[in-house]
Structure formats: structure tokens, C-alpha cells
Write a structure and sequence with these properties.
The chain is of the alpha+beta class. It folds into two domains: 36 residues, no CATH class; 94 residues, GMP Synthetase, Chain A, domain 3 (2-Layer Sandwich), CATH 3.30.300.20. It has three helices and six strands; from the N terminus they run E-E-E-H-E-E-H-H-E. Strands 1-2-3 form a three-stranded antiparallel beta sheet, with no helix packed on it. Strands 4-5-6 form a three-stranded mixed beta sheet. Helix 1 packs across helix 2 and helix 1 packs across helix 3. It is globular, with a radius of gyration of 17 Å. The N and C termini lie far apart (40 Å).
Length: 135
């Protein structure tokens, strides 16, 4: 499986990533540092997207239903050399399904997540999965 994206920037302006039929603007200047995502936030977004994609994938394989999944991701940036470290995530799944086995789901996410496994080669990852009953 191969992937392709394209990105471009204009001097003294911000940048855009082009993926399939989508585009994502991101900040490269100090002017938009509070309004557009920066590269570190895009990196963490990719990590979060990987986990959410696997929740969807494994809901079918593990035969559980859910209405929504929400993930919060935090990381520490180290200075020398500049890099991410200590990624912590909290995944909340809205479900009343008794077939949802949180420990097996976590194990599957950690074993089969492409971005997850790429990231864990370079920094520590700690995560929790919680459920909130649907009403």
C-alpha cells in the first residue's frame, strides 16, 4: 500500500496540504500561530485519526456498536533535538453495547494501527479507553 499527498507554501504566507479531494490549511507564520494548526498538531491529528479509524474498523470485526468516539491527545515537545515525546491519549467511546471489550480494542489499536506503530518507534505512548453509556 502506498500513499501520496502534496503540500505547498508561499513565502511569508501559510501552507496547504492536498489529500485526494481535501485540502488542509496549516500555519507556517507567526501571524496564524493561534488560528491554524501547526505541523506538530497535524502530526498528533494523524495519530488521533489512526486510532479513530481503528475504532470504526474493529467495531465491525469485534461486532460492537457505538454512536460516537472522541479522542484527546497531548504530547510534550523536547528541545534537543526537537522531537515529540510522551504522547498521552484518552479515547472515549459512547456505547451501551456489552460486546465492547475495551482491553481487546486497545490491544488491537496498538497492534494494527499504522500511524500508532510508526510513532511508538520514536516516543512513548500511554493511553486509556473509557466508555460512556448511550442514552
Amino acid at each position: 500500500m502506498n500513499y501520496h499527498i502534496k503540500a505547498s507554501s508561499i513565502s511569508n504566507q501559510d501552507a496547504t496540504i492536498y489529500i485526494k479531494e481535501s485540502q488542509i490549511d496549516f500555519g507556517t507564520t507567526s501571524v496564524t500561530s493561534e488560528t491554524l494548526p501547526n505541523p506538530a498538531e497535524l502530526f498528533l491529528s494523524s495519530f488521533a485519526a489512526c486510532i479513530l479509524k481503528n475504532v470504526e474498523r474493529f467495531s465491525g470485526l469485534m461486532k460492537f456498536s457505538y454512536s460516537k468516539a472522541v479522542i484527546d491527545v497531548n504530547a510534550t515537545r523536547l528541545e534537543n533535538p526537537p522531537r515529540m515525546d510522551g504522547i498521552i491519549y484518552n479515547l472515549t467511546i459512547y456505547s451501551s453495547d456489552e460486546k465492547l471489550n475495551k482491553s481487546l480494542l486497545k490491544k488491537n489499536i496498538e497492534k494494527f494501527g499504522t500511524i500508532y506503530n510508526t510513532v511508538k518507534l520514536s516516543c512513548s505512548i500511554t493511553g486509556t479507553i473509557n466508555t460512556i453509556e448511550d442514552v
